[in-house]
Amino acid sequence: MCGLSGEIRFDGGRPDVAAVERMTDRLEARGPDGRGVWSQGAVALGHRRLKIIDLSERGAQPMTDPQGRLTGVFNGCIYNYQELRRELEDLGHRFFSTSDTEVLLKAYLQWGTGCVDRFFGMFAFAVVEQDTGRVVLARDRLGIKPLYLTEDSRRLRFASSLPALLAGGGVDTSLDPAALHQYLSLHATVAAPRTVLAGVRKLPPATVLTVEPDGSRHDHRYWQPSYTRRPEHEGMDAADWRDAVLESLRTAVRRRMVADVPVGVLLSGGLDSSLIVALLAEEGQKDLATFSVGFESEGGEQGDEFSYSDLVARRFSTDHRQIMVPSDRLANALDRAVAAMSEPMISHDTVAFHLLSEQVSKEVRVVQSGQGADEVFAGYHWYPDLAAVQREEEPETYAQVYFDRPHADLARMLQPHVLADHDASSALVREHMAEDGAETALDAALRLDTHVMLVDDPVKRVDNMTMDWGLEARVPFLDHELVELAAACPPELKLAQDGKGVLKDAGRQVLPREVVDRPKGYFPVPAIRHMAGPVLDRVREALSAPEARARGIFRESYVSELLAAPDAHRTKRGANTLWQVALLEIWLQTHGIH
């Protein structure tokens, strides 16, 4: 829901309102229903609105609370805003709207930055204290809603997307070698606070950043599960954990029904999205709209999973739509998806989500989606290997099973001016693995995947692709209470049954067994994976463009080797190497970065 932007000046000058206007306009797709800009003193705020809660103009932003002399912009949804509103009314606060944005402002007035501890939801926001000039920026616990930053000695700018910051101007667009190392090693994941651009950073998840008028600041991380066994769960057996997980997921799905518009589901036919459909049906939601997408087969690989999604749709009597995308649409669809990317993303399903979101947005404004279950409940095939080692061996084992390629390979790929002087990806893993908590090796891996890799790959992907069509995606598997429960769950229960064992047990309570016990599927786009004709033509065009040659990221001999055999070169995890190389260049060209 929505897009926000802003500028804070530190040098005594006035903010560049025209730049904030440009940033705000670049966010139009995220908020097609309204626009607002506010400026006072050294701060300016911009907002684009997607109407989900309080459809009246009383919910417009930037929103000012005259009692508290606060002005704020907000992106996301606070699912428990009605309960918080009642609590705040009991404390003497009076409301002029029915929006969750006003609840946020009153909560800040009542509890200061501690208000984030009371929020159940996904959010990024900026609140300005008019009397002090202090600005507070915050992001939700799992980083579902983005917040990008760029600054120099005079000012700090922020926005819901990286392209919006570029529209403001004055951004250092040189490549960050350490971030490029992560992009090529971690399946295009660049962990916060970095982005591939040296001049743009992102606020990490679960972080509150307080900026004083003189530019001084402090930030703190307000949430992090311990990934240890907790006393309150002592004595629970497998059935107890199954029931606890199902009840927590049921609560998470129920929370995400709050809206003043209909809520649908992106239904792949896998366990995760099927569970959401089953629980929504259990809650009594009638005429539930569900949506599935498929692609033409290429290279002998099936491009859809309609048989499973159809089974679930029939079982729960949903209003179901199949969306089949012919391969000849992919070239144009690819460019539009790349334009929607705040950062380069190589996963094939990025294009799929963008095409799906285009169609879904014609029917509903809000959908629930199953992202996050594999990281939270250990569903990927590499987790048994990670669980088999000692805690101190985990960083090295993680690199062996997760990385796209070893550090030494990058020297053969990259030109010297963009080659990091150290193994930046392994350093990132070691740093996170060394944090307190995480009782076992698997706990450490799941903590890293859930709070770093998940945030800056699938979560970001879904936000970018859905919001480009003014569609809000809600992810119940990233309900923070469910994540806390899963973090405390014994590793062996998550690893059981080839992964997600405890979730599969929960699924058998409400789903047909053939959905729960099916082979694990993915969101395939075979034409990209196998470099089918239209996609390969676009790749060749991008890599031979004058901008690519002038930029000189990759060694020419290496690029020639990839182009000579487009489908032959694979990362350790099976991704097409040519696609990984070309997507970065396509993204840079699409966003006018020279």
TrEMBL record:
From the record, give the transmembrane residue ranges: none
List the catalytic activities from the record.
L-aspartate + L-glutamine + ATP + H2O = L-asparagine + L-glutamate + AMP + diphosphate + H(+)
Please indicate which superkingdom the organism of origin belongs to. Answer: Bacteria
Domain Glutamine amidotransferase type-2 residues, every copy:
2-214
Q: What is its EC number?
A: 6.3.5.4
> Which SUPFAM superfamilies does the record associate with it?
Adenine nucleotide alpha hydrolases-like, N-terminal nucleophile aminohydrolases (Ntn hydrolases)
* Keyword field: Amino-acid biosynthesis, Asparagine biosynthesis, ATP-binding, Glutamine amidotransferase, Nucleotide-binding
State the protein's name.
asparagine synthase (glutamine-hydrolyzing)
Organism of provenance: Streptomyces thermolineatus
